[in-house]
Amino acid sequence: MDLFYIFKFNTSELELNNYNINLSISEARIKGNLISIGYNQLLHQIFKFKNINLDNNYIKNLYNARDDIKLKPDSIENRNQIQEIQNNIDKLLFIPEIINITSNNKKIYKYACKNGVEINGTRYKRFICGSGAARRNTATFIDEKIFLPIYNILMNGLSIKEINLSKFNAYFGLYSSAITKVTTPRICLISDSEAIIKNKKVDYIVDKIAIDKDDKSYEYRDVEERIIDFKSNEFDGAGLISPQMAEIWSRDLNLKYIPSQFIIRSSFIKGMVSVFDFHKFSEVIAEKDKIIDVYGKEWDIDKIDMILSVSQFKMWRFYQSWDEYVENCKKYEHIFGVSRYTPKIDNEYSLLNYQYIQVLDLDTEKINKLIQPTVDWIKKICSGDKLYTLLFLLGSCDVDDNVENILDRVGNDYVKALIYNDELYNDPYIRKKIYNSIERRIKDAKLGRLWVEGNYQIMVPDPFKQCEFAFGMDAKGLLKEGEYYSKFWIDRNKDKVCACRSPLTDPSEINILKVVSREELEDWYRYQSTGIIYNTYGLDTVIHADSDWDGDIIFTTCNEVFINSVYKDLNPVTYDKVSTEIQKLTFNNIIKADLQSFDCKVGQVTNKSTTFIAMRDGWRVESKEYEELTRRIKICRRYQGDAIDATKGIITKSFPKEWTKVKKGEEGDSEEVKKEKKFLRRVSCQKQPYFMIYLYNDLMKKFRIYRKKKENESKRQFKKKLDGILRIKNSKLIQEEIYFKMGYSLFSPILSNNSIMNIICRIIEKIDFDCKYKNEVKFNYSILINKNIKINKKKLNKIDDLFKEFNRGKNKIKNDRTLSEDEYNLKFDELILKIKEKSYLITSNISELANLCVIINYEKYKNSNKLFTWSIEKEGIISNIIINQQLVKYMPIIIKNKNEIENIRMGYCEFKTIGGFKNQKIINFEELEYYGGEYLGNHYKLRRINNGKTN
Length: 951
Fold this sequence. Notes:
This protein is α+β, with helices and mostly antiparallel strands. Among the domains are: about 5-155, no CATH class; about 185-190 and about 235-345 and about 455-575, Barwin-like endoglucanases, CATH 2.40.40; about 690-750, no CATH class; about 780-885, no CATH class. The strands form nine sheets. Strands 2-5-6-7-4-1-3 form a seven-stranded mixed β-sheet. Strands 9-19-14-15-13-18-10 form a seven-stranded mixed β-sheet.
């Protein structure tokens, strides 16, 4: 996807500069005010308005020209050319017509919207604030000179006076979604299929009114078990695309396969389309070649490439016909785009998250079984084995791949370097990168990011049933209630999987799916190689926290521990949904809608429910505390929905105060009141679970300060280490030590009980992974140097000065304790860009620049951190490594188990080639044994060279 660049400011910056800022692109890049955005419909219309024909090849040619000059010998002329080409690239990719404003102060944001802001002499006006942007408190402003013409173009012939403002923001905001342009299909728009699902037992969250002891009324929420009839939009957000059109889109997207599902965008159009042969359906099943759209017009099915439902076309009521809409699209030159599409092959293994784990019924034995594969995996990487390390860094490759293609896919330069020359496993910079990466994986494991067999796929409503509905038939579908189809799991002979969707609040939101396969399913769903196809008879969308079918992702796993630990027979949680009112479409009302949608609290609700779940693990199931915490967890499901609805402009309620703060006991309180207050304190959400110190740096810092304080107190009072008291049973402690231990837990900033996630975290903490990459080894840095380039002492001295400037800047940033993690990273990126720009004034040749950096960083200051060289001149380093590359290279690849041909399994093989890497194929596994291969149970490894030849 092409990336473009725009300015971004926060409201504090605007106020500080009196809403008038002047800065260049290079200054903005250094200061962190330049961000990248994908190509979208808004940019398309701006380019059209400016009569710019964006030629991708022209941009690529500029990059190639710049990079070619960097390979030429250094000269003042080449330095100037590089700067000139870079300026041209910046001009092409930089979009001065729009800027992004992030609100950290609603009052300032409101002022900026009403009065505009001035950047480099151009005045900007508030233009777009879609749902995703609103969750980040961000809106797009546009040059006021083109506001009206671009607005009229994007309105696509509509003149709307009244509308649901939050929905308008969401619909209009679709124009800023990143897309890849594809061929516009011929579409038939059909109505939504609404059905009543009867007699379903649910836990219903209701608002109630009660009277307190002072005869004052107050509102509260409660849970009631009810049997309800549920109104369902069976295909909300979903449509169908023909296999022929999907093939055209595959070519448009430069793919070598046809995706099963696409997430689409066009003028006021949003949703998911799955590949289904509705032409064959019309002939074989419907036995008619006509289809009627929502406006009542009859269409010839042979002239249709796509069937959309009105839930995907957000403004359908404002047009008289589909033809009117299409005519306006042609008039204003709107395009069709794909924002996301499904992969050719789904992952065999994926990472869990703590939300999915904490709601399971796990004991210590199950926990150990769940985490063991992840622990084993990390230990193998820590062992220093090159093949395991490369698999960890690179992932697996296909047997038919070649090294050149693999290198093109690699994002990290240091991983590329390892492929070219495995001596770089000894480079101190690379060893530290690998060590830090492993440390992150260990930290992730403490947070529940554990490997299990499974993956994330798109939820798809039965396309056969949608086709029946589209042709006016009695829609029954191919899947009965309780049945699901997944090609991925069928191929692995799995008929039962767990399904989870984030954010997950309550244990009832884990869904057990019965996967079925029949001949008719395999026939009609032949294009659904990925995706989980749902029947539309149950409450699956309710179980999955009110999901729909517009591209929502679901995680499924066949992990036995997972499946066997799901709480049985829980009612799904639901509640009355609130709708927003129709309002006048005015600028002032739009600003109000923005402000209502800002400050999304989804994360806060998730944290509260996580704390309640952790607290509940400390109480007996039959206790009053367990019952109350269970009630609150269910109610959190509604608060979670409220937080999402808040971005739609719906007024929502705050958490009850007694959930987080409990009134202290007062003189005159009755015994009943005292007892109630003590109970509320026991179930109040005032701390976060221990494991979350690895999620929030501030919480970790707070906990460390508290622990250090208590450590000192323990040594001073009892002459013992803190752990020497905390880990010993009370029966072996004196009374003062018991009181100290109780006080430690009571006043600790974190909840340290034996909740599921706290147990997992502590188990991982206690494991000694013994990472070999932590140790320094001898490294021959000459492989980083191009020996054909002589060293110029004057240039070397200038690089020496840059090295010192870099370290001064790095230390200044490191010692600034006021910076958050994001601010620290931003400041460091600014420093790198500043030093890099200066380095190209010393030499334009990347190999020479790399030589100079290496000699300073690896030779003159041999004990220094190697961040300078790899941050400033990665490009030149890779260029030099290619010159010094090994003839033998290693690749981890996917293989087929000969004993189970139909079951693709993970495996590894050492891969050796000679004479460079271009067009060298990975060795054929059928010939492995001939070349000395050995079968090791679930993988092959090449042990020796046959007849002295390298294969």
